[in-house]
Amino acid sequence: MDKTVDRVLQLAEQYRDYTAKNLSRLVMIKSLTAGEKEVAAELKKQMQGAGFDDVRFDGLGSVLGRVGKGKRLLAFDAHIDTVDQGNLENWSEEPFSGRIAGGFVHGRGSVDQKGGAAAMVTAGRILAELGLTNDFTVLFTGTVMEEDCDGLCWKYLVEEEKIRPELVVITEPTALGIYRGQRGRMEIRVSFKGLSAHGSAPERGKNAIYMGSRACLEIEKLNERLKSDDFLGKGSLTVSEFVSGSPSLCAVADSARIHIDRRLTNGETRESALAEIQSLVAGLPATVEVLDYREKAYTGREYGMEKYYPTWTLAADHSAVVRAGDVFRSLFKAEPRVDKWTFSTNGVAIMGIHGIPCIGFGPGNEVAAHAPDEKIAIDDLVKASAFYALYALKMK
Ligand SMILES: [Zn+2]
Questions:
Q1: How far is the CA of 345 from the centre of ligand 1 (A)?
Q2: What is the 3-class SS of 189-258, one letter each residue?
Q3: Residue 35 alpha carbon to ligand 1 centre in Å
């Protein structure tokens, strides 16, 4: 039996309550996108308390905790913003209670994804205690603004902070499966220009609502014929908003615009997705554009990107995936489930834009993300902390 495996498991178990309590504290601090200041300060405090070698904030306010001083860099990422509670009537308890009961930590963000952050803190503590004897520094990032713009925080880390790990483990919920990809996405706006006329004589005008409506029905058909990928599944698109304008309610509408949520499978790109929409509205007075995201972080730093989030997949036989399988088997004496996310993650920037290999492994089930009565099993947190620590120790 590998002594390191034993020791890691033993420490992760020993820190069970510590991990749950750290998560509870993180959950109790509400942290919507661009409002992460307090939770970031709490996470920094937890990392310092865990014996990390260095903890600091980047320009957007993400927490960067380092363990070790090797020349090579491995990163673990958890975003620390959450979505709002939604309709309170759907909750059976206070959404930000952080209550620990029945083997679970309860509350918004417990699964998506402060659970990953808490498991990282414990992994860092285990690594600080055991000592990293390989050539690696481990960077644990508690990143901001992910819920509104996945990948933005990592675009910033790579492009502005010049941090480029050779591999990133994303700790979003995978129910302890090993994930190696996700569909990409983009947000497209199509604007239609009509001609207004008095509502009593519609034949004199050109109704932008009719143009937009025809396009919407074509988009519905396009969704049916999009191609599929064996691993990631089918690309998809849906119209998520329709807005029109008119000089009066007694006039022909002279403007309309639709918002399209496009999910991209393997082989679909920004260009191919745009070309499909352009061909649907060819001949109409319409413009097609990819929208931009631009927002101020809690630090006051404004940052943005185009809302194109590229698809990424890591091959099943990539060393990072193989290592994840080995680590899983040696810790849990079982075969891992290798799969993909349905939703989008920071991987769109890490691997999709910057080509840095990514894998996913996280506590909690993604089905509970953004849902009422969110809660996470403490067993999952313990297992994830052991996995992260051993993964870092097994890097070669
Ligand atoms: Zn998430």
A1: 6
A2: EEEEECECCECCCHHHCECHHHHHHHHHHHHHHHHHHCCEECCCEECEEEEEEEEEECCCCCECCCEEEE
A3: 16
Radius of gyration of the chain (CA): 23
Q: Is there a contact between 273 and 310 (Cβ–Cβ < 8 Å)? A: no
Residues 265, 189: contact at Cβ < 8 Å? no
Q: Are strands 338-341 and 178-182 parallel, antiparallel or unpaired?
A: parallel
370 CA distance to ligand 1 centroid (A)? Answer: 9
Q: 178, 254, 242, 176: which is closest to 215 by C-alpha?
A: 242
Q: What is the pTM of this model?
A: 0.94
φ, ψ of residue 347 to 5 degrees: the values are -55, -25
Tell me whether residue 203 is exposed, middle or buried, using C-beta atoms within 10 angstroms of its C-beta: 0 to 12, 13 to 18, 19 or more: exposed
| DSSP-derived pairing of the beta strands 167-170 and 358-360 | parallel
Structure letter (DSSP) for residue 335: P
The rounded distance, in Å, linking the Cα atoms of 379 and 16 is 8
323-353 pLDDT, tens digit per residue, is 999 999 999 999 999 999 999 999 999 999 9
Which residues are part of the catalytic machinery? 81, 146
Percent of the chain with pLDDT over 90: 98
Contact 133, 285 (CB under 8 A): no
Q: Rounded distance, CA 33 to CA 15, Å?
A: 30
Q: For residue 264, which phi and psi values (nearest 5 degrees)?
A: -110, 125
Q: What is the SS3 assignment for 323?
A: helix
Distance 322 CA to ligand 1 centre (A): 24
Q: How far apart are CA 283 and CA 193, in angstroms?
A: 12
Burial class (CB in 10 A: 0-12, 13-18, 19+), 41: middle
Flag whether pLDDT at 96 surpasses 90.
yes
CA distance 138 to 34: 26
How far is the centre of ligand 1, averaged over its atoms, from the C-alpha of 395 (Å)?
26
Mean pLDDT of the chain: 97
- CA 182 / ligand 1 centre spacing (Å): 13
Banded pLDDT at 1 (limits 50, 70, 90): low
Q: Return the residue matching tokens 């404004």.
A: 302
CB atoms within 10 A of CB 371: 17
Q: How many CA within 13 A on the CB side of residue 292?
A: 5
